[in-house]
Design goal:
Elements lengths: L1 H7 L7 H17 L6 E6 L3 H6 L8 E7 L10 E5 L15 E5 L8 H14 L3 E6 L19 H10 L11 H9 L6 H7 L4 E7 L2 E8 L11
Parallel strand pairs: 1-2, 1-4, 2-3, 4-5
Antiparallel strand pairs: 5-7, 6-7
Helix pairs in contact: 5-6
């Protein structure tokens, strides 16, 4: 398990997860190049540290608004932290942002209805978007690092989370909280992501021929042969 965590730990500069994020962000930057500056970006669920690791904090003509359920500190003039709910971003006007960016967040907002609410808000406040999420059909569940965990009945997932340390989660002593925690993670299929973002291009991020994650994006330049 520790070896697997070292592979998937995006805090480590030499991990596979970090390399995948860097590759993913390079795609985002490539697509961003087609947009005229200044550019106003909304990052849902992100951190300033992520943009620092991607070496994208001193870009001229770029403003990044980071939205989370609690305030996070920012230290750059072009970075702003705001508190809000991705499912109801009433503080923002229609089309207020040139692009909405989100990395591994939509699977955490709740039910499919909640995910739809987030998707609708993304498409309302953003003129374009770049939304990444883990692929439900990848064999290793990315949060609990347990093979096929996402396909187990809720009661079994809650039992495992209640009794064992799994992936990034320490054992959850309260069984009701364990149930809530596992229920709040709902991985998406490609078909579901396409339904949430009608008309989007879907980019498949692959490892050893298997699709690890999916990216929905729109109104940006086309990107190679792995999109469908």
């Amino acid at each position: 398990m520790e070896m697997l965590k070292r592979i998937v730990d995006n805090r480590r500069a030499d991990s596979l997860a970090t390399k995948l994020r860097q590759r993913r962000f390079a795609l985002f930057v490539c697509l961003l190049a087609s947009m005229p500056r200044p550019i106003k970006i909304l990052d849902i669920g992100g951190t300033q540290g992520f943009w620092e690791r991607m070496n994208f904090t001193d870009e001229p003509g770029i403003e990044v608004v980071i939205l989370n359920v609690s305030h996070l500190p920012t230290t750059y003039d072009n970075f702003i932290s705001v508190v809000g709910d991705a499912r109801d971003m009433k503080a923002f006007a229609n089309g207020e942002f040139d692009i909405v960016f989100s990395n591994s967040v939509i699977e955490h907002v709740g039910t499919y209805a909640d995910q739809r609410r987030m998707a609708e808000e993304v498409q309302r406040v953003g003129k374009s978007y770049f939304i990444q999420t883990p692929n439900r059909y990848f064999p290793i569940e990315p949060h609990f690092l347990f093979p096929l965990f996402q396909f187990l009945p809720l009661s079994v997932r809650a039992f495992l989370a209640h009794h064992f340390d799994l992936g990034w989660y320490k054992r959850i002593p309260d069984k009701h909280k364990a149930t809530r925690e596992v229920a709040m993670i709902r991985l998406l299929t490609r078909r579901e992501l396409a339904h949430l973002f009608p008309g989007a291009s879907i980019y498949k991020e692959k490892i050893l021929g298997l699709t690890k994650s999916l990216i929905a994006y729109n109104r940006l330049a086309a990107v190679g042969k792995t999109e469908e």
